[in-house]
Specification:
about 90 residues, four-stranded antiparallel β-sheet, two-stranded antiparallel ribbon, binds zinc ion
């Protein structure tokens, strides 16, 4: 997915702006892997093979996303995921 398209997306819950963290880009500069973070509710939306996963919570399967998020650990700035939200990790900030 192109960065331009991704910047047009907003959080489906509160319509707040999403902050993009690119993890892997294609040769053409499109986002292949990364995640979008909502500045309002802190929900995290993974981008997998260029497709942002933006389903409502009840349609998301955390078990499917966890291996990916584990792999992206270094990109999460020491934070962890709870209820699809990025929250502060074990160490105080
Ligand atoms: Zn939100």
């Amino acid at each position: 997915m192109t960065i331009e398209t991704i910047h047009k997306l907003c959080c489906p819950f509160d319509r707040a702006d999403l902050q993009l963290t690119p993890i892997r880009t294609t040769v053409t500069g499109d986002i292949d892997e990364g995640y979008l973070l909502c500045g309002q509710c802190n929900r995290i939306y993974p981008i997998i093979r260029g497709i942002p996963i933006m389903s409502p919570d009840e349609y998301r399967e955390f078990g499917l996303e966890k291996p990916l998020l584990d792999r992206w650990k270094t990109h999460l700035n020491g934070k962890t995921i709870e209820g699809f939200r990025l929250v502060a990790g074990g160490e105080p900030e």
